[in-house]
Amino acid sequence: MSRRENRELRQQAAQARIERRGVGWWRRGLHRRGWRLGGIRPRLFAGFAAVAVITAIIITSASYYLTRAVMLDKAQQTAVSNLTDDFTAYGDQLQTGGTASTKQYEEATIANSLHQVANTIAKNGDAVVIISPSVGTISSNSNLDGVPAAFKSAAANAMVQERTSIGGTPYILTGATLQPSGVQLYTFTDLSQEQHVLDNLVLIGAISTLLALLGATVVAFFASRNILLPIRRLGMAARRLGRGDLEVRLEVNGSDELADVSRTFNETARALALSMEELRAMDAASRRFVADVSHELRTPLTAMTAVTEVLEDVEDADPTTVSAAHLIANETKRLARLVEDLMEISRMDAGTAGMRVEDVNLPELIEATIEARGWGEKVRVRAPRVLPVQVDARRIDVVLANLCGNALKHGGEPVELTVHEYPDTLLIEVADNGPGIPENALPHIFERFYKADKARGRSEGSGLGLAIAWENARLHNGELSARNRPQGGAVFTFRLPRHPASPETEPDQETLGALLSASGHDTRQWEARTR
């Protein structure tokens, strides 16, 4: 295979992984980095940020409205005071400007006088509008000469004020009428400077909010670090405890809730360690007891087996004696099988079960297993003629004999043994046509001494056959599983790796599930290969 083909295969595999992971891959990435979206750290950051932003907004808003109220009140009072002073200073001229005249040159003189008064008052910083009954409207600023009619009516009886905006510039309009001449004087007080101050206050508030948010982020980071670091240590210690490290302990500092949790964890770990030590001691004692008893029973059982075989060959005894001899012989053989199974289990538990790996032809091994037990007419085999494997032939024989024997004993004939061949895995399926396995018994079918039928007090076997088969499969880095077929009957599947298990050669869970659920199509494929 060329480098280009290898690169394309790697790209296809990467794309397949992305599609399997879906759109949530980045979430899992954040989770692995400690940034769980619903974790403590994001919630602390959100809480601190919310407090900082809300506090800054409240302070800025309060400052804005208080400052605005003070500045407007001051501006209004100043406008009223200035207008009162203007009436006092220029009252005579304004009274004269309100006098009606019949001569044109006198009207011009009055208008000029009022215009001078308006310009003089406007030097204080306000635009001025004078409305005289005799000469009309006089304005110091041609852009500011419009006074609303309603405001004029209100100003005829009292000094009034209102805020207005002209050309985007805010003003305070103040007006009053001078009696008895009826001359009205209006001043436009510019509020641009006050508005600039308020805009700067809003800008300062926004900057303060950002700084408060930054400070809250820093505080939240250190606060979350102080909280999450002990929690992370607790999680690591819990994982080590789950992996069997019973000596793990946490360092306890302080007297807060996290310290209490650490103390509780240490006490729990200590109690668990003591319990495990007691359980290990009890388990070791029970295993030693089983091994010793089995070993001690083996010698007398050998002698008893020989004697019962002699008694079975006696022909001149009465029928009662012959029947008793057969009964004793059968029970002795059953007890001998039980002792052998117990000794095998003891060796596996102790880790002393040896393996003699050799090159064998799996179909020949299967045929020899079936023929040696006289099951040639009861078990139908579908397998290729040649399939070399490296296994311990004796232990594979035990696995196959237990699976086929269990199918013949508790299932229905015919029993079908099918071998499915894959690049790195072999699947050996043993299916029967019986009633199947009860659903509540499937999770426990490979446990020692487990009986699916609780009413069955004793059986011909030792109750350890499937457990021993499972242990032998495990010694080959394989596994056993059981399920019921939809059409009826139970199926035991023996997954046997062709090579030592590794991440590159072992099928993933999806592929394995597809292999384990293989049905008639694969059987027909193997039948075609054998032909």
From TrEMBL:
The residues covered by the HAMP domain are: 225-277
- GO MF annotation, one: phosphorelay sensor kinase activity
InterPro entries assigned: HAMP_dom (IPR003660), HATPase_C_sf (IPR036890), HATPase_dom (IPR003594), His_kinase_dom (IPR005467), HisK_dim/P_dom (IPR003661), HisK_dim/P_sf (IPR036097), Sig_transdc_His_kin-like_C (IPR004358)
Spell out the Pfam families in the cross-references.
Answer: HAMP, HATPase_c, HisKA
Q: How does it sit in the membrane?
A: Multi-pass membrane protein
Q: Which residues cross the membrane?
A: 44-66, 201-223
Instruction: Please give an example of a GO cellular component term from this record.
Output: plasma membrane
Which UniProt keywords are present, listed alphabetically?
ATP-binding, Cell membrane, Kinase, Membrane, Nucleotide-binding, Phosphoprotein, Transferase, Transmembrane, Transmembrane helix, Two-component regulatory system
Q: Name the chemical reaction catalysed here.
A: ATP + protein L-histidine = ADP + protein N-phospho-L-histidine
Query: This protein is called what?
Result: histidine kinase
- Which organism does this sequence originate in? Actinospica acidithermotolerans
